[in-house]
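Action item from last meeting closed. Structure (325 res):
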């Protein structure tokens, strides 16, 4: 008892410190009503019926060549720059974004992937907002009526059912991340950053009013991106493209699903693994780590967070690739 008492006494200052630390972290996520209204309907992102996900015209939909796997959820990605501003290229990765840039990613499932008329279930809308040079972030959880979404900082698990493209019923425990989880993936060199809109991942053909156009050219045409020769940007391929080599496919998949943590600036920068697409194979530390990579992939231990089911089709192909090295 006595020693217990002493322990408590000794730890008391630590508790106090932790309390203030926790409070400080909490403060950081006290987003102002002006930047992050508590209701999504007040955020001026979607017009008309909220669940139609029809953005106001200042929000431009964009696509990524290779995207993050999130338990088969569908995603809508939107970007808005303040009127009269544009993104400026630095290199192949993130451009400079103007102050006030807002990026929104909404996660949903088709009730039946074979038939859109059966409707969808929207889970959350995540927002990144550039203010005073820092990216503020938050997510809105949709209600079950799909009439409103509310700012949520504490995370939540939701059971979702859907029928896949082969007509097979599926269920998953979909995770809405808490604020710490956002930073685990988004923090690069200690700062939260966007992860998707890197020039080499925006470099793909997209459909614009029925004709195909390179998305970077499209952005330049509408004034969203400064002018430069897009052929100087090295593209990341879409890992879903069946024409790719095993190596291209695997490296693109690892970039999109692991590279945000496994790079010299990411959360696991203390490890040698660098799983970004353009890092030459001999510098990735993949060679020599094949068996631990396969083990972590097949056991579902990696990715560390963000999924609750194995992306079987790709885990199998990557395993084959790793075994071939
Ligand atoms: C498991 C890792 C992971 C977690 C956790 C995560 N994100 Fe992301 N997020 C990504 C990746 C990777 C992308 C880009 C790829 C994509 O969109 O497919 C992305 C994209 C986004 C985008 C679109 C702009 C961009 O960065 O590409 C927003 C907005 C966003 N996340 C916000 C959040 C917020 C807010 C949270 C926490 C509630 C969060 N994310 C949690 C990995 C994560
Ligand atoms: C959200 C961040 C995050 C993501 C995403 C992520 N990892 Fe990790 N990974 C870590 C952390 C942190 C560790 C170290 C702790 C541990 O070993 O569990 C780690 C460890 C590993 C290790 C062990 C390395 C060693 O030297 O022992 C391997 C292999 C690995 N990850 C592979 C992957 C693969 C493959 C993916 C993508 C499918 C992935 N990781 C996605 C954060 C992440």
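Sequence:
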């Amino acid at each position: 008892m006595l020693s217990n008492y002493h322990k408590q006494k000794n730890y008391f200052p630590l508790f106090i410190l932790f309390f203030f630390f926790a409070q400080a972290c909490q403060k950081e996520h006290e987003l102002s009503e002006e930047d992050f209204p508590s209701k999504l309907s007040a955020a001026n992102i979607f017009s008309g019926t909220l669940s139609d996900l029809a953005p106001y015209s200042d929000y431009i939909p964009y696509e990524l060549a290779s995207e993050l796997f999130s338990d088969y959820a569908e995603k809508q990605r939107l970007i808005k720059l303040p009127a009269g501003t544009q993104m400026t290229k630095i290199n192949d990765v993130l451009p400079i974004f103007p102050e006030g840039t807002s990026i929104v990613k909404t996660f949903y499932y088709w009730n039946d992937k074979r038939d859109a008329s059966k409707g969808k279930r929207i889970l959350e809308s995540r927002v990144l907002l550039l203010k005073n040079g820092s990216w503020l972030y938050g997510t809105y959880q949709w209600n079950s009526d799909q009439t409103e979404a509310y700012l949520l900082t504490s995370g939540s698990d939701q059971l979702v059912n859907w029928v896949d493209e082969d007509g097979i019923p599926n269920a998953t425990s979909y995770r809405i991340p808490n604020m710490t989880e956002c930073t685990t993936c988004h923090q690069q060199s200690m700062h939260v950053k966007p992860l998707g809109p890197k020039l080499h991942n925006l470099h793909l053909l997209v459909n614009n009013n029925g004709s195909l156009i390179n998305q970077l050219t499209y952005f330049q045409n509408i004034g969203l991106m400064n002018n430069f020769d897009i052929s100087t940007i090295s593209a990341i391929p879409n890992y879903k493209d069946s024409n790719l080599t095993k190596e291209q496919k695997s490296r693109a998949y690892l970039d999109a699903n692991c590279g945000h943590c496994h790079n010299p600036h990411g959360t696991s920068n203390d490890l040698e693994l660098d799983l970004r697409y353009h890092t030459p194979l001999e510098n990735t530390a993949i060679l020599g780590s094949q068996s631990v990579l396969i083990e972590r992939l097949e056991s579902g231990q990696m990715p560390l967070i963000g999924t609750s089911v194995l992306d079987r089709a790709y885990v199998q192909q990557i395993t084959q690739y790793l075994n071939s090295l």
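Note appended to the action item: Residues 86 and 222 are 10 Å apart (CA to CA).
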